[in-house]
Predict the 3D structure of the following.
Amino acid sequence: MIENLLKDNSIDNENEKKMLTNIHKKVIHINFLIQSLLKLSKFDADTITFVDNEAFINSMLEEVKDNLKYDYENTIYNIEYSYHKVINNLEKENIILKKVINKFKDTVHKFISWICNKFDFSNEDTLIRDFEKENHCSLDTDKIIIDVTYKNRKNEHELGL
């Protein structure tokens, strides 16, 4: 009930708010004291008794340590397993990408040969060189990979990665 009055903004006087807050704190304190007295009365009535046992702190600490060590090792194993799984997937994707690049390389070479034969160009190398010069690009996949890798590293360096 006091909480509702405190939450309600209908109280205008600041002193009344302070008084209600103080009463609320005292009610909480009294409630705590009552619960403590009830617990003590159970000891007096012999409804609760202490069991006289020796506690070996070292053995308890060893057990906790063993449990934590097991949890730690299990977590490390899970992290390593996940890491190796990701690495394996990336390696598989890399193999597939290399196959795609090689297939594309072969296709481009066949296409250039076909164009040279179709339009009676005498030399494929001249056609490729002229294309690369006029379009400022390369058809050599190794050069493309080196160029892209260089640009990625340059961008990462500029971004501070």
